[in-house]
Amino acid sequence: MREIKNALRKELISRRKAMNSSQKLAADIDIFEQIKELIDNSEAVFTYASTEIEVDTRRIIDYCLERNIPVALPVSGDEEIEFFYIGGTDKLKKGRYGIDEPPQTFPAAPSEQTLCIVPALCADGKGLRLGYGKGYYDRFLSRFPGKSVIICYDEFRREVPAETHDRKADYTFFNRKTVNNGRK
After folding, report:
1. Is the N or the C terminus of the chain less surrounded, counting Cβ atoms within 10 Å?
2. What does DSSP say about strands 147-152 and 171-174: parallel, antiparallel, or unpaired?
3. What is the number of domains present in the chain?
4. In this predicted model, what pLDDT tens digit does every residue of 118-129 receive, in sequence order?
């Protein structure tokens, strides 16, 4: 199963790198417009600092901060991620994987009203996703009480290769498509 997932990851990353900037911008805006209602109905938003091949989360972060919706970003440990609230993006520093991380000043405690936005390379209609292979979000979501949302470019799959430890999200937002995975 690991070999299948790794081959698919390689293909999807290559495809993302081939996206031109106007395609990416249009997809980022489309996903943002779809997810705004869930953000507006959340007490806090846990998201990630996107890399150049991921759905842009800066727009989401700025939107939350402008509306005084608490927003938290993850810090990667050896096996787990922990989220910390931010007041802006000016204090972010490159972390373990070269991804922007917040200072570990204000730990974030999720509630049932917290929205967690999860990155993915592809996803299916059942809430399963293919991430980057470290399992951080699967472990985090196994104890997360709020709503979880996958954001992903148009990489809808009939079936995502999954293992027993893979966790399902409540919603999936693709550019041009939203899937309620029937969980919450």
Report:
1. N
2. parallel
3. 1
4. 999 988 888 888
184 and 170 Cβ atoms separated by less than 8 Å: yes
Q: Which residues pair with 93 in a beta bridge?
A: 101
**Range(s) of the domain holding residue 13:** 2-180
44 membership: H or E segment, kind and range: strand 44-46
Give the pLDDT confidence of 2-54 residue by residue, as tens digits.
788 888 889 889 999 999 999 999 999 999 999 999 999 999 999 999 999 99
| 81-86 β-sheet, strand order | 81-86, 71-76, 44-46, 114-119, 147-152, 171-174, 177-180
Q: Chain-centre distance of CA 46, in angstroms?
A: 9
- The CATH number that applies at residue 74 is 3.40.50.10420
